[in-house]
Design goal:
Layout: H1 5-23, H2 26-45, H3 53-77, H4 105-120, H5 124-151, H6 155-161
Helix pairs in contact: 2-4, 2-5, 3-4, 4-5
Length: 171
């Protein structure tokens, strides 16, 4: 049975939508969301007994640091914020504020906060899931940076000066 005109249009529209979704890193965004939800749900349910007061202090500090980095990153990006790996066409390259210290503060924020969550509950499986989350963010950052290099002529210079995820310690 041959598809009618409307079915063919719908099929081409869906293909364009999904290729655009995939091309913008949509599947990485989905993987990120699934892992964030998994960690949020699994950590309290798989609590261990290896945590203690010191681990909880470390976790609280990581949670606070992650929140501050996330707020600073969101504030600095403003209208340029997107969950996808391709920047907005009308976007600007942000290099000030927290972005003068690290290129991906929002990824660091989520890694710190979710690791802190898993540590707070002493969840071995939560910590393992955070390893996978870090891999997703690494892949997402690499894909994002290819798009940023293509869109902004000065991004390569910015890359050479500012570390990807963890700030350099000053001497």
């Amino acid at each position: 049975m041959r598809p009618g005109k409307n079915e063919a249009f719908l099929d081409s529209t869906m293909k364009a939508h999904f290729s655009s979704f995939a091309g913008r890193g949509g599947y990485l965004v989905l993987a990120q969301l699934v892992l964030l939800l998994l960690i949020a749900l699994i950590a309290p349910r798989t609590s261990g007994n290896w945590g203690g007061g010191l681990i909880r202090v470390l976790a609280a500090g990581m949670m606070l640091a992650g929140a501050l980095v996330g707020i600073a990153g969101t504030w600095a990006l403003g209208g340029n914020l997107t969950p996808f790996t391709k920047p907005k066409i009308t976007g600007a390259l942000v290099q000030d504020g927290v972005y003068s210290h690290i290129r991906h503060p929002l990824y660091l924020c989520q890694i710190l906060m979710m690791t802190a969550w898993a540590l707070w509950f002493a969840s071995f499986w939560g910590v393992i899931a955070n390893g996978f989350l870090a891999l997703v963010f690494d892949r997402k950052a690499r894909m994002e940076e290819r798009a940023l290099v293509a869109q902004f002529h000065n991004y390569t210079e910015y890359q050479s000066k500012v570390p990807r995820l963890f700030p350099r310690l000053r001497r």
